[in-house]
Specification:
Length: 225
Amino acid sequence: MQQSVSDLVLRARQLEREALEHLAQRIALADVIGQLIHALQHERGATSIYLASGGERFASVRQEAAQAIGPITATLQALCSAQQVPANGASAQMLSLMAWVLLDLDMLEELRPQMAQRTLTAHDAVAAFSRVIAGLVELTFEVADAHLHPDISRLLVGFFHLVQGKEAAGQERAVGAQLFASGSCSEAQQLRITHLIDAQERSLQVFEEFAEPPLRAQWQHSQLT
């Protein structure tokens, strides 16, 4: 009986350790996804201005931003490959989203020469970047859906809404930059910007609700400066 109890305790500790390892992998994955989204948003904005200005502006910025994507993408690919191991606990939905994200990144790579040669419109370029980022945001949601540790899972949920709000703000900047560089603005485009502002405010409000008190206070202070 004593041996049986010891085995159960050891197994319980092993499962706890495995759960924490899975959670650490989720956190690392969320971090890299966040870095990639930020880098893609930077490239999207620079590309939008480059194309809308007829190649007169942000040519070097766009090129540097595109080059910065490679190392982050390689890290994401490695983390996604690790999640294929059944013991790491990735869901079918999570693996499926990873596959679509990697495919979208490959398609974006194929479009970059067209962007450089300005055979793609600013609107189509922004749409291509936004499609990739949307997949990454959706993957972030799946990664954040981790019930292994309530406190950390709460932070991951807050992180997802921060990423979501940041993407709405990024799209707003990209559309605004495109309009500024092109010198035109239709009513539909104005409504699009208004919609994006509303979307980011909703997401960031949820982020505040899930953020820890010190981070929430820091965030609220930053909104006043």
